[in-house]
Amino acid sequence: MPSSDLVMMRATDLARAIRDRAVSAREVMQAHLDQIARHNPAVTAIVSLRDPDILLAEAEAADRDLAANGPRGPLHGLPHAVKDLSATAGIRTTQGSPLFRDTVPDTDALHVARLRQAGAILIGKTNVPEFGLGSHSTNPVFGTTRNAYDPAKAGGGSSGGAGVALALRMVPLADGSDHGGSLRNPAAWNNVLGLRPAAGRVPGNTDEVFLPQLGVMGPMARCTADLGLLLSVQAGYDPRTPTAIRQDPAAFASVRPRELKGLRIGWIGDFGGHLPFEPGVLDLCEAGLKAFSDHGAAVEPVLPAFDPEAIWRAWVTLRQGLTGAGLAAHWRDPGKRAQMRPEAVWEVEQGQKLTAFDLHAASVARTAWYHCVRGLFERFDVLALPAAQVFPFDAGETWPRRIAGHAMDTYHRWMEVVVPGTLSGCPVISLPVGLNPAGLPMGLQLIAPNHDEAGLLAISAAYEAVTGFDRTLPPALRD
Q1: DSSP 146
Q2: Is 362 helix (H, G, I), strand (E, B) or coil?
Q3: pLDDT of residue 290
Q4: What pLDDT digit, counting tens, does each position of 459-471 carry?
Q5: What is the spatial distance between Cα 234 and Cα 382, in angstroms, rounded to a whole number?
Q6: Of 158, 232, 430, 460, which residue is the catalytic one?
Q7: Does residue 83 carry a catalytic annotation?
């Protein structure tokens, strides 16, 4: 099979072809290495790529193991690059920071170990912003990840390298994490899917396991079946994370589309005018919603009875407390502090001003928002918002200072639209809604009731069937 055909295959089909020995893991590895060599220099999505000869040898070993013992797991022989915030044994993990430029962990993060156990071959990492801060994957170690649809534009973040590598068929699947839209923004900007699971669905950090977390691990993919496949590998209980969900994740690998007729969608839009948007964003999202209503779904505008500024303040407070605490040890060393990006320093210094009472008040506000969202699910099956407030901006910018004439007061205010989903704790998916006249993608967020990732996958599969979003290719792949 030509290598160009292999990289265009869905991950589910590719994994099946390897298991059936219709194609070898070595051929699959070579095809993706060729694709990386062809496209990565223009976009810097894959970083810390391992030696190709070693990777090909590991792929050959996977072929021998398959012949002798059968598949190791559902990802047997698939090449995979891990987001560069997650520890990978024997593979450099920099977090995009010069402080960790040469760090090579001895052990895998929990979800990375699951990838290996499922048979994936780790080829390297995907690029991130420094410490994962912000939705633009640029850092002083590897440089800037550029958009799959226009390399002059930003690729998004913090799972930006993952989204771009996926869109350009350099990897069949991509993992990421999401605190402030990091699975949703790069998915929207690169015309792929990103799913932020409910808290506890994918066990993550084991250093501190009891404080409520805003960041979660999750999957990205080009089609719904692939998204479910990766989630089935990532999810599942682990005793090291006592808040993890006790539910068999295998069902996620068998996605069935639901009937769109009768689906009730609450369209929050710009939250009553609170959120500014670049022209064209809302139009594309409303066109995506029309694909639902054309097939029998009921789409109704809704304005939650909750102050959106209170949602933002609660999120910023909790983020500063959690993120600032995680970075404080580096900040305390003046030499290391001098190498930290200004946004990281800001998070620490703002976090130091907080009291326990501040954090408690923010958590109470978050709880109130959750109950508001829970009440809305009595009227709607899902809630909808755009996945970003702007289209991909110039890759040389750090972050947008203004949107539609409104000044952004922090480095992440321009992504405020993802905060209601994050703070709800509910699962959220970003669905592609097409391209603007400049050829730049956008996405639509759907928020589901807590723990209903399966429902989101079923909706995504139905939406995929009626829109064919997975058939849209970046310009570099259209020749």
Answers
A1: B
A2: helix
A3: 98
A4: 999 999 999 999 9
A5: 24
A6: 158
A7: yes
